[in-house]
Each structure stands twice: as C-alpha cells, then as structure tokens.
C-alpha cells in the first residue's frame, strides 16, 4: 500500500493524537499533558498542546466539546477533545509507515 | 488565585482558548502547590502562561479587535516584535554583545545621573530653596569662601538687613546626654528658633522650638532628630514633654523633627537646641555660626549681597579690633550644597560617561551595519515582495528597540550594584541618598530607547537605500558595501578619539589623586590609635579640674600594656587641624587685621610630639613643668617660623600672644621649639598643603574638647583596653570615633577614592569598548576580503604580507582617531585644569602613556583577525566563492 498520498503527521501531532486515543472521553489539557509527560517523558507546555490541537482541529482530525465549569478551575469550563475519523485514519497511516520502516530491524543493535 | 504576572500573560493568549488554558493551569497549579510549594508552582504557572502567549497568541488586529484605520500599526508592530525576537534568539552572540555593551554604558550613565539627581534635581528637604540666601563671612585675606559669622555680627546683620525676611544662625556643638543608659555624646545643632520657619521644617511629633525658648534665661528645650528618637527612645511618642539631662542640666523634649531633614551633613545632627543656651557672652571674633536667611519678596541674591557688604563695611569701621576688613557674601542654595570643584567633577564625569555611551553606541552601529550587510539579501527579498522602505526600516528599529530595553534594564541593575558598592565604601552620609530611584529609572529608560534608535537608524537607512535588483545581483559585494565600510571606519575613528580623550583626562585625575596622597603627612600614621573624648563640662567646669582629669586619664592609658606614648590635644593632626587664630608678635605691630600673623592653634599635652612622631627640629617639646602657673610657652611649625621670623632658629625665644576676645587678658608666650610641618587637611587645597600651626601646652589652656592619640606597635588591638582605661578615669566621659590613624585617613579619603575609582572604571570601560569596536571592524573586513586575500596568497604573497595588509588598514584608522583624540584631550583637560593637582593638564608622560596603551590594545585587537587572514587557504576559499 502506498501511503504517500496521505499528508503525514508531525511527531508531536502523533503524540497528541495517541494521547487522545488512550484517554478516550477524558481528554482535555491537563490529562493530555500528563499522558505525554508520564509516557513519553516529555514536559510539554500547555500552549504547545493547544496550538497542535488547534491545527489538528482545522485539518478535521480532532473534534472538541465544551464541558461544565468546575470550582477547582476557578469556575472555568473544560474543553474536551476526541479523535475524529479523519484523524484516526491519518494516525494509522503514519504509524503504519513508521512500522514498515522499522520492520526487520533489531533496533537495539541496528540503530 | 492566579498569580498576577500570569494573569497578565494570559491576557495575550488567543481569546478562544484562553479560558480553557487558564482553567487547566489553575487545576494543575493547585496540585503543584501541594507537591512543590507555592513558589515553584508560581514559577511554573508563569512559565506555562508565557509559553501559551507565544504559542497561541491573541490575534490582534484580525479578529479580536476592530480593524483600525491606517496601516494596522499595532498588528505590524506585533509582527515585527515576533520576527525580531526570533532573529535575536537565532544569533545569541550578537544579542548578548549588544545587551552587555548597552548595560555597561547605560549603567555608567545612570550612576552619574543619580549623583546629579541628588545634587540638582531632587527637591531639597527645605522649602523654596530658590529664595534662600546663604551668608558666608569673608576674612580680610579672602582666604576662605565659606566663612562663618560671630553671634554679635549675626545679630547686627539681622537687625540692619532689609533684604531678608528672616535670618537664622546655627552652630554644631557636642553635648553629653546622661541618665539615659550609658553617657551619650550627641551632636547638637544650636539654632535660632526662626530656622525651622526659614527652612520650612515641621515636627512630626510635638512642636519645633519657639521664639520664646530662644532668649537668654529661658528654660532649656530641645527637639530630637527622628533617628535619635528611633534609636535611643524606640520611637516612644511619650517622650514629648519629658526631661533629658544634657550637659548636666534638665532639658524638656519639645518634639521630634521630620526625618526629611536628615540630608547630607545635617543627617549627623542628633538634637536641635536654641542658640540662647550657649552660656558665654560670645565675642565678635568667635566666628562659628552658619547664617542663612529667607530673602524678602522681590529681592535678588545680588541685591542682598550688596546690602550685606555695606553693613559689614559699617561693622568693620565700628569694631576695628575684630572686624576690620571683614566682609560677607550671599550665595544661592545651589552653591551652598556643593562646592565649585564638585560641579566641575560632576560635569567632567558626565562628559566622560557621555563619551562611554557614544563609544558603546558606535559599537552598536557597527554591529548593526555588519548585520544589515549580511541581511541585505533578506531585506532585498522583502523589498522585492512589496515591503516599503519605511516598513523595512521599522522592522530594524523595532529589533534594536528590543535590545535597547533589555540593555537598559540590565544597565539599571549595573548602576544599582555600582551604587551599592559605593555606599559600602563611603563615609560621607550624602552617599546614602544616592540610589536608583524613579528619576534614575526614567533616565535609564530614555537612554535605552534613544541610543538604539539613533545608532541603528543610520545603518537601517543605508541597508534599505539600495535598489534591490542591484543587491540581489551583486551578492553582497559592491557599491553598498563600500558605503557601509566607510561609515564603519568613521565610527572606529570616533571611538578611538573619544577613548583617548577620556583616558588622558582620567589618567590626569588619578595622577592628581596620587600626588595628593604623596603630600607628606609629617609623621608615620601606622602606630597611631586616635579617638575623641568629651569630658562633660558640667563635671569638669574649671580649668584645673580639666587639667587634673587629663593627667589622670593619660597616666591610666600609659599603664595599658603595649602603649608607648599617649597624648591629648584639641585637634587631631591632619584630621581636625584646630582653630584658625591670629596672634601678635612682641615688638611688631600689624598695620591692619589683614596683616596680622595667623596660625591653626592646637593645644597639646606634653607627650604629644613623642606620641604623634612629629619631629622636634630645634628646642624642647612640652614638658610636665609647663603648668598653668608656670611661664606660658608655645611651639611653632617650621612653616610658621619661616613665614613670620624668616628661619626656625630666629623663632626660638620670640614672644607671641594669641589675640584674645575683647576684655580678656592677652597671654604672652615664649616660643620654645620649632617642630616639623604636617599636612593641613586629609585632602589639602592646592597651595595650602601646609598651613602655619601653633601649639600651646594643654596644661596652660585646658579644653574639654579632646583628641586622644595613643602610640603602640599594635595600635589596632588596643581599643577595648583604652576604653576601659578612660572609663576608670571618668565613667561620664564618652569615647567616640576610636580608630587607627590609618583607618581615619582612609575614611576621610573615601569620597575622593570613590570618585577616582569611577574615573578609572569608566576609562577602562571606554578602552575595552573601543578595542572591541576595532576588533569587530577588522575581523569583519577580513571576512569580507577573504577572496581577495586568497587570490593574493595564490599569486605568491609572502607570509608577512597579509598581516601587514590588515594592520596597515587598521593602524591608519587608529592614527586618525588618535590625532583627533589628542587634540580633544588637550582641550578638555585645559577646561577642567582646576581639579588637577601636582600634574600639568598637558603632562607629556600621561599623553605618551595613554597613546602607548591605545596602540598596544589596538595592535592586540587587530592581531587575531590578521593571523586568521594569513592562514586563509586559497584553494578552499576560492572554490567556495
């Protein structure tokens, strides 16, 4: 299968999308940041996360919904994000391409 | 609670997501406060908010704000700022160089400005200083420009003058306060009650002194200074109306004075008391009162001056004994708060830091030229894509403004650090007032905006001035490059000349300072410990009691282990040179008061010369047999002997009498010795390094104003033992200002050391900045000429040829700059010649030394690039081209 026709995702975009997949309906700023921090060991800024989500949303890869205000947020609302079908497809393409590139490599020794 | 800085940052986040980001941050912030503590959590919060501001900035001018008329100034500004920030972070070396250079230059300027701020700009704590007149009495020789008045003269002036609405007198005096813990020595300012009105001083508690308390026989009243009230009485408001024991008698506290007056030398005053409390009827030749007055409405200083001169002329005729040829002058406040030399030095320092700023800005301009040259392609592309010239210039100016603001902020930090060091080193209280305040900050802000604009606008205009097709074609070399090279060379010439000028002037200042320190003290200060003692007058009222107390005191001190000799005297050598007195010489009559011999008089106990180490040249020192009832004797210095008798030997045996107050008996003294001269003051005036001095035995003229001099090989370790000895002799005698002679001299010289230090620091800064400028220009031109040099090498240039080529070019610039600088130095040092001491403003050694230093550092600056040029590999360089 040729994947060149699909636009590829950036590394950070992949990470954010994967975080959304893992978090399901609990995905918003704080949890996305935590997910990336605990798994990828990367302390990313909230601004970077939102910037990426904004870009993914304009591409139609994620969808968002606004929750209710809560007191621990100083009465502010949450914005939840979900992977849209287009996003899931793009993510699959990216990961497949990556997996194919790594197939057959013993990456501990070859890379 | 969101920290306010973060809240501010979040305002610049895109509106659609700001709420969610703020909410997320708040949520995590709470968790982090619990985990890392509030401080680190706040730092994190702010960091996140800042990044959010960068990543998802608010869309100004697009959606959030209604579109403005015109060219969308704010929007383009934000674009420029963002683009500039990115570029600056891409070239951290350039950015750091500019910020450090600006910081040093703006810091230096802010330091000098903060001096001017205190002396010129800040309002004095005195009401309407413009209409105050400061009255200085002039002696017949017109030797001192800030003479004081006697009380009767002041009284006559006050009665006769029409130019002044009020006239007030004041005099500092030492008093002892007992009964409140340890005996305290306090500096009292004895003042006319009207002084509080004249200066517009208010009491913050109770009241100021009343006119009724300033009449002889009134019950004693005093006003506490704020600092004494705070330190001694723990700011207790109940102190008003209470009674304190001052010099052994009860005095009621009328009030506490506004701390605003604790300014300059007045900051030393502990308590304020009425003048009328001075006991003795004061003579017309007892001139120790400072006089100040409020001019009557519409009267100028000149009119007041003329009127006072007329009154003084009348007094001179009426009281020829004491007032013949004495006069007075009226000075405005500006002159009263700082001497003439101070203004010259301040102006010179101002000029020098101005030069430093110019040199720094030339560096900036050079950097900017180099940068715009390397960015010419970028700029040309922008122009090709439709950017107007104005738009391109604006982009460049915005970038330099960002640098300026960063440099200015760093500069204020530099200035604050510099002033802190000075305050720690200084002894004079005026330095406490010199701080980075609002005025200094505004000044720094103005500089950090003005200097980058001025000095980057020029290169920006150059850069944008070419026809773009040409630039794109020529690939960075060609007519534009020659044009910028010329302006870069002009900048280097300017830098070298400015640096040379201020190096010469600074060196002359430093050499003056050294020359001043070389004036012989007249004795070795190393083994001396000095202090001042104030035996309470109320306890030792009569002369023989004071004399007995001194003997008791000295015998106890001499028993302290390690003490070689001890003496008391009314002044301390060099530190406080005694009081100026006129005297008569037996067998001669002076034609007028003006011609009367004069000398600084010191009373000294018999061990004085052994203790100080001042050599006895001929005759004998004071001895225990010189008592109150024995023959009155005196000792003069070599300078006095030469001045009035022609030679030291002629003075021995001569008889003299200090001019006494009217009615008092003149005491004729026989000169028994001639001793060595000592430096007249810690920082002597030019021409009066040595002044005539007259010593009188302390036993024959006892005084309760006592300096103590102890000689010991380990002077620094004895203070505690000496204090104990004084306490044993008299528990009511306060000891103060105890320090080694070396420390005392260092304290007195602290201010001039600070000033000298500034000259040195600024000169070094200028040299470093100018050298860096030269280095940058040469290095850049080597970079530009790589291909040319490569061709030369390929065609067979010898190894020495290439460095010579580079050096010749640089040396020509240095030579032109040096010649201009020498001329500038000659002019400037002649303008300020009055502040130099013991060195000519055209001192050849200084000029030669500075030229040498500039040459050496220039060659060093050119050495590295010229070496690099000679190592150019023709093969690779030409291929790359």
Overview of this structure, please?
The complex is a heterodimer of chains A (111) and B (881). Chain A is mainly alpha-helical and 111 residues long. Chain A has a single domain, classed as Arc Repressor Mutant, subunit A (Orthogonal Bundle). Chain A contains five helices and two strands; from the N terminus they run αααββαα. Chain A has helices at residues 11-23, 29-40, 46-58, 85-102, 107-110, and strands at residues 62-66, 79-83. In chain A, strands 1-2 form a two-stranded antiparallel sheet. Chain A is globular, with a radius of gyration of 16 Å. Chain A starts with 10 loop residues before the first helix and ends with a helix. With 881 residues, chain B is α+β, with helices and mostly antiparallel strands. Chain B folds into five domains: 1-58; 91-125 and 337-474, no CATH class; 140-325, no CATH class; 477-516 and 748-881; 535-733, no CATH class. In chain B, 52% of the residues lie in helices and 15% in strands. Chain B has 27 helices and 22 strands. Residues 61-70 and 475-479 of chain B have low confidence and may be disordered. The interface between A and B is medium-sized, with 18 and 22 residues.
List keywords for this structure.
heterodimer; A: 111 residues; mainly alpha; Arc Repressor Mutant, subunit A; two-stranded antiparallel sheet; 5 helices; globular; B: 881 residues; alpha+beta; 5 domains; 6-stranded mixed β-barrel; 6-stranded mixed barrel; 22 strands
